[in-house]
Amino acid sequence: MKVKQMLSTAVLNEGIKYVEKNPVENIGKLLNWGEKILVTDNHKNYARSFHDILDDPDNNWNEYVRRLFTEYDVNVRKKVLVNFLVNASILGIPTNGKMSEKYDCNIPWAILMDPTAACNLKCTGCWAAEYKKSDSLDIKTLNRIIQEGKELGIYMYIYSGGEPLIRKKDLMKLARKHNDCMFLAFTNGTLVDDDLAAQMAEAGNFALALSVEGFESETDMRRGNGTYQQVIEAMDILHKYGVPFGFSTCYHSKNVDSVGSDQYIDYMIEKGCIFGWYFTYMPLGKDAQLDLIATPEQRKYMYHRVREFRNNKPIFLMDFWNDGEFSGGCIAGGRKYLHINANGDVEPCAFIHYSNVNIKEVSLLEALQSPLFMQYRRNQPFNDNLLRPCPLLDNPHKLREMVHLSGAHSTQPIDREDVDELTGRTMQVAQKWGKVADQLWQEDHFPSGVSIPKEVLQAAHVASSPVNS
User: Fold this and answer.
1) Is the Cα torsion angle 69, 75, 80, 82 positive or negative in sign?
2) Nearest residue to 292 via CA among 97, 199, 392, 425
């Protein structure tokens, strides 16, 4: 893959030099350059669809692409195009597939890791509270995971926690060392400062997803007084330095109206967010608050709102659950991503706290071949209705069965949560959502109201998250 990377990078760099002379006028010509390095027929089809978008000056996705070329530092633009588009996607995805066939296991597009379980906030209902605050992955282990990942064609690395920026010095060292990879950290935003933003602009391959729960009252309700203003200040700092960032929002029963509003999305765009992740509240651990679980009607509301925003807002939005139709169902278990917690336990998903192996004792490949991960491989997708993708929230009987068959253990040291107890908590939720989801699925698998072609939306998932089809 190294030879292909060098040739592809050289071709793309020539195109970037040309575009930089007049980004707004020459973006379409960059696509022409980019098509020279495309490997698969799917990628070539995606490129043709993007050409159609760029030919329509009034298309919101046209405006989005132009934002990418006008709001970010030039070094950031180059790194994102090469590391994100070429290494992680155009070349990485076919390599992932070949490695999956070779080793007969899932090989993911992205790896999510927790550098630390420590956090400077104590948010209501946070599943990370179930881990020991003293747990951490040393930089040597983090580096080994990345090195082993690259050998499997993985060039996208994501950090969560705890608060990953507690380790920001180590994370920037890794970004500089592995300058052929793309990095993203989910952060509460309170530790962002000018020094970090300047380092991110210089490295060019590090982005942030800032956690925000709506406007000030909704955010501070779960995250503590004053947190919202700190997040907004972090956005201003990052925007000033031209580094990429977006928002990460957990929608629940008490904030759906806020985070699903035009005013919220418009403000996030105004602050400089280029992407947004939507997650729904998961009732994990002894402190789980069942009253925060979104109702089926609220989840349906978010399903429609995200699709409406995609029609008219220049921002790329992802809904971790409701976008199952674009990702082919659940993406966890190494199918598209996996999670390694701060203790080193290799879990199928950030929300599935069960494991058979610890990364401190096995290689990344051995972890992907562990019993629970092989159960995921055999059972995905977990439902023919891809709007019911999750083995915990939508198909709890599947998670219960896989954990028992694999002999996986709970990775929550504070509350060794029994899988039967956990799935019993979500069984009724799954049944209620199932009725609504089945109706949505029958109406239209790919809603006609989405103006952007579904192929392009799928491609954008490939390029913007661990969701790739």
Assistant:
1) positive
2) 425
Q: What is the pLDDT of residue 333?
A: 98
Rounded Cα distance between 380 and 208, Å, is 30
Tokens of 364: 């990344």
CA distance 123 to 255: 15
Within 13 Å, how many C-alpha atoms sit on residue 181's CB side? 28
Question: In the block, which residue shows the tokens 């509003």?
Answer: 261
The span from the CA of 143 to the CA of 156, in Å, is 13
* 70 contact partners, CB below 8 Å, separation of at least 6: 23, 24
Q: Where are the beta strands (DSSP E) in 376-431?
A: 409-410
Q: 307-310, long-range: CB within 8 Å, 24+ apart, which pairs?
A: 307/447, 307/449, 307/450, 308/449, 309/262, 309/265, 310/450, 310/451, 310/452, 310/457
The conformation of residue 86, written as its DSSP 8-state character, comes to I
Distance between CA atoms of 165 and 160, rounded to whole angstroms?
9
Residues in the chain, total: 469
pLDDT at 91: 83
CA distance 402 to 315: 37
Q: How far apart are CA 463 and CA 467, in angstroms?
A: 8
- Find, among 203, 187, 188, 184, the residue nearest to 241 by Cα: 203
pLDDT at 451: 44
| Series of mean pLDDT values for 10-residue runs along the chain (469 residues) | 54 58 61 59 62 73 82 87 83 92 97 93 64 83 98 97 95 98 97 98 97 94 92 98 96 96 98 96 85 96 96 94 93 97 97 97 98 98 96 98 98 90 94 96 62 45 39
Q: Alpha-carbon dihedral of residues 209, 210, 211, 216, nearest 10 degrees?
A: -150
Distance separating alpha carbons of residues 124 and 97, to the nearest angstrom: 39
- The neighbour count for residue 67, using CB atoms within 10 Å, is 15
- Give the N- to C-terminal CA distance of the chain in Å, as an integer: 21
Specify whether the CB–CB gap between 347 and 411 falls below 8 A.
Answer: yes
pLDDT for 414 equals: 79
